[in-house]
Amino acid sequence: MTTKDYETFSDPCTKVRLTCSQWMEKEGCSVTIQTQNLSRLAHDILLRKKENPTWIQWDEEKWHYTGAGYNGSERRRKERVALYILTLDAINFCFWPNKNAASKDINPLEYEHLAMSLKHLAEADQESADSTESHTCESSYAFSPENLSKLTPESLNATLQPHLKELYLDNIEKRTQLLAEVGEGLKKSFNGSAMELIEAANKDACVLVELILQNFPGFRDIVPSREDFPTIFFLKRAQIFVGDINAALNLNLKNMDKLTTFADYRVPQILRHFDILKYQPHLETIVDEGSEIPVRSKDELSIRAATVVAVENLVEHLNDRSKGEEPFTAVTVDWYLWQVGEKMHQDGLLKPFHKVRTQFY
């Protein structure tokens, strides 16, 4: 990597805030933020927290692998969990149902199906636990860097399909490429260890985001500048990995408050439900009719940038109303919005979400 590359990835979370704010100030942005409607959602969140001190949990639905029942060393348990989460977040994108070109059936694949399928694979070799304090996982572990780097679309599909059953994972070629990239990156820079990657950040969340960007190109959720707009940063999957691993391993990373919301499709959907995001008429029609939005189009960038800025405003609103208590962060607010949005979407209470075919969310 060049010096310019390192400069591009430095202070990444600040770049997300700055570039998204700049986008929202542009003429022609197709989404507006109705800040006057933040109070109702803030009230709901504050009430939820008051009623339940553990108001938001990372693994509330128990979808994720935590290493429970693993009989090896604690170091290796953490290594296995870290590899599981890195694997999951490397392919954590585009879960909206797609039509199967062959059968014309709708594929109801959701995030939880992938998370649980990978969890089953992670648990498959727990009985072969090795009690040594080696910094790497067992070679039999599905998500060892060596195994990830050797994946092919056929082998990934054959490994996952028994756990997905009638569901199927779309864009298997790209997902295979991203997983192989993770395996190779860990071997090249971190002695084949996800924990060495984490430890290299020196307990700093923003530095860990930076390391992810430097070593795994597939996480670089950055839209290059064009004639009509400058470079814009989102970094959804890089930041969500940091949020996930911090919670899963109780890392207590500093600067977690510097992370932004994870700009995907569910969070803007619920922000629109609460009349916080307002789409221009042409965009309303596209989204409500279920039509796809071109990747990196002005409409897509407007939705994502507005989501980041709106959650920043919401976090500020919440912290102004709860002084003296543990501060809210964009990460915890994102988890709340995503979990509530998932339930409301499944119950048919939300308008459609926007659809973009992308590897970034």
UniProtKB/TrEMBL annotation:
It catalyses: queuosine 5'-phosphate + H2O = queuine + D-ribose 5-phosphate. It comes from the Eukaryota. Its EC number is 3.2.2.-. It is an enzyme of class 3 (hydrolase). The keyword Transport does not apply. Catalyzes the hydrolysis of queuosine 5'-phosphate, releasing the nucleobase queuine (q). Is required for salvage of queuine from exogenous queuosine (Q) that is imported and then converted to queuosine 5'-phosphate intracellularly. Belongs to the QNG1 protein family. This is Queuosine 5'-phosphate N-glycosylase/hydrolase. The lineage of its organism: Eukaryota, Sar, Stramenopiles, Ochrophyta, Bacillariophyta.
